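Sequence in, structure out. Go.
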Amino acid sequence: MRAIRRYFCATIGAALLATTASAATREENINDPIVGQEDAILTDAPAVPPAITRTQATKVIVHIEVKEVEGKMADGVSYTYWTFGGKVPGKFIRVREGDLVELHLDNHPDNKMPHNIDLHAVIGPGGGAAASLTAPGHSSVFSFKALNPGLYVYHCATAPVAMHVANGMYGLILVEPKEGLPKVDHEYYVMQGDFYTAGSNGEKGLQPFSMSKAIQEKPEYVVFNGSVGAIAGENSLPAKVNETVRLYVGDGGPNLTSSFHAIGQIFDTVWTEGSFTSAAHNVQTTMIPAGGSTIVDFKVNVPGNVILVDHSLTRAFNRGAVGMVKVSGEENKLVYSGKMSDEVYLPEGTGARVADQKPAPPPVTKTKGERIKLGETVFKTNCAACHQENGQGIPQAFPPLAKSDYLNADKVRTIKTVTGGLQGKVVVNGQAYNGVMPAWDLNDDEIASVLTYIYNSWGNSGKDVTTDDVKAKRVKGSGKVSE
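Output:
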């Protein structure tokens, strides 16, 4: 009876929250007086900061340091992560509806890239991104009012945005409703992400990021909390029989939607898309869009491992999206009997055969004019986000292409830069830049065309780069060649 009463109390609490969480209007939260200030308690996944017990809005100071660090992706596989706080996902931020949040973003001086932060909980330009673009060795500060309760994703929004997010730059911020949340025994922080390594899944060594795989949305790894096994095995999330578990779950993406499921468990309550406006009950699998979140509560009744997966199952069992809640305690044979007989199991199915028909190759440009025309399209699709449509670049972040002494001095070096990528210090028009440019997965004709377009724009030298030039000077093993 006690267990039944506890379940219904939790359910009723969730129902009450669903009807009261939106009681305060945005205007009321704007005008909610700020009393005092405090430093935010930030945690690394899977830990969650303690519930907020105060009953008034306050000023919350949040310090997050961006670090570019090498870490373990899988056994024998390492990766250079870009992080909010040194780990993936970034620090969990917990504030209260109506709070004034003052956010300090510090970009470590050893980093190579500028970074910023876009919090989906912010009402303002770029979710804070416009105010927080920060070069290495610098710090940016801005503030915002937490006007809407919910669980929100934050991420880096520096161009190329997908590259920053794909390298692990995302996290969650919980804006607790003023009424608080129903009490549970455990709260955990879980965030899915898709990673795009140049080497295939399981290939050993330090793996660089592959822009071409990211554009094609073909990740080598899909994982929880930044790496294979981060919340499995000895890293499993602990619980005991008859305890209630709450998971704050986000999907950093940058591309894949998660079909979040717990094998051997039913979600008693789900706040879909991180919204406290309404709750669903008795849910088997819940969708989490890239850049979205959800909150799930469930009570564990029997011991064993509750397996957390993306139910797009090759991601779980072939790419790494597996976690565990390890439940200890006494068995309850009425709820779950365990094996009662031993049946013969015959695996089903055979491999499907698909006819492989190669697409017709695109036509190759023949004249300089054709290359300039194609190159403009390639530039707008692949290059304009960083270097801007006028070729001026972004100060302290991305070098200019307009009147660029670096480009105009050496056509061969330019071809090698685009086909092989560039990392480290480079001086353009007297200004030093220290960043990362990925190798682009473009064919010889596309690279010839975009370079010809650049050389014939914004006061550059007017050079013509042909497909044969690129074919001869392309960095070996990089990207596509001509069809």
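Check: Confidence is low (pLDDT under 50) at residues 1-12, 18-22. The longest strand covers residues 59-74.
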